[in-house]
Specification:
single chain, alpha/beta, Udp-n-acetylmuramoylalanyl-d-glutamate--2,6- Diaminopimelate Ligase, Chain: A, domain 1, Rossmann fold, eight-stranded mixed sheet, five-stranded mixed sheet
């Protein structure tokens, strides 16, 4: 799901950290911010509006400010009015503590667009604001499972309730791997389609909800709630990890033909991103923790272009072809 943030909420939640103040345009505080990308409207101020991005927060730095100060007002006003007439435009922000040009203030009031100012320099402010907006506005989802970091690879273990996901996680912890979250996994999509998984409690660090001393618990039938940090140490837990592999556990079905070669890669989509998936049938006597470890290592090899099953298959075909040519 995608989120949005009003300009008023931006001021409330990040105003102090970003040193923001409202100069004018109080009527625009209810406007929504829906994307975390920002825009420097230098060309738009000069009248080149063909590729103007009105859905983004507009940043007025020293360059844009100098142009507004020196260019004739009759040249600037038409472009400003076209820019601010867009109903999707969230707000304008002046950096470096600059004083707003009179034309800019007048048009912001006319179109009820909030004009803000920060004392931070442009580069610092853009970096800080982008980071804040990414945390709030990136697409998110929640899934059921256990997220474990195995050899530096984020592995999401899924399956029906009672299949043994938490028991697998415990065995992996004993083997030196790291727990990120159990039961409910909150996933956020970062730039480049990277998926970041965490506990829903970890992502609420800045909320008004009561804070727990630890979010790293596992519920195991017959044992109850286990505090992983206290049992295995601080090195056995992570607040968040990229999600790079999905392992699906399912009860062994003798009528199903399971993949025994591994040449073709299975995938699953989460928030539009394709992730490799491995289906492991569960039956008595199978060491699932070891199988998941090997699946993680094999996934890492595949990401580097090495597919053992394919190389073996090609080698066999070569040898069979050579043998046939001898006959």
């Amino acid at each position: 799901m995608s989120a949005s943030l009003s300009v008023a909420e931006l001021l409330e939640q990040a105003g102090a950290a970003l040193k923001l103040e409202l100069l004018c345009g109080e009527g625009g505080l209810s406007r929504s911010i829906c994307v975390y990308d920002l825009n420097r409207p230098g060309l738009a101020l000069a009248g080149a509006l063909e590729h103007f991005r009105p859905e983004r927060i507009q940043i007025i730095g020293k360059g844009e400010h100098a142009y507004c100060q020196t260019a004739p007002e009759k040249e600037i006003l038409p472009a400003l009015k076209q820019m601010l007439a867009h109903p999707d435009l969230p707000c304008l922000i002046l950096t470096h503590g600059l004083m707003p040009p009179p034309a800019l203030t007048r048009v912001c009031r006319e179109f009820h667009v909030a004009l803000l100012r920060t004392s931070l320099d442009t580069a610092t402010f853009v970096g800080e604001l982008t980071t804040f907006l990414e945390e709030i506005l990136s697409p998110t989802n929640t899934v059921h499972g256990v997220l474990v970091n195995i050899y530096g690879l984020g592995v999401l273990i899924q399956g029906d309730s009672g299949i043994g996901k938490s028991e697998c996680a415990l065995e992996l912890l004993k083997r030196g791997h790291i727990l990120v979250a159990d039961d409910v996994i909150f996933i956020r999509q970062k730039r480049g389609g990277v998926l970041l998984g965490m506990s829903p409690l970890s992502k609420d660090k800045d909320s008004h909800l009561p804070k727990l001393s630890s979010t790293h618990y596992i519920e195991v039938r017959g044992l109850g709630i286990i505090d992983v940090r206290m049992l295995f140490g601080i090195g056995a837990i992570l607040d968040r990890s990229p999600v790079e592999l999905v392992v699906q556990l399912e009860l062994w079905n003798p009528d199903r033909a399971y993949d025994r070669l591994g040449i073709d890669e299975q995938t699953v989509q989460i928030l539009g991103a394709k992730l490799p998936r491995v289906t492991i049938p569960v039956s008595p006597g199978r060491n699932l923790a070891v199988l998941i470890e090997v699946a993680a290592l094999n996934c890492r090899l595949r990401s580097q272009g090495y597919v053992g099953a394919r190389i073996l298959n090609e080698d066999l075909i070569r040898k069979m072809r050579a043998q046939r040519e001898k006959l």
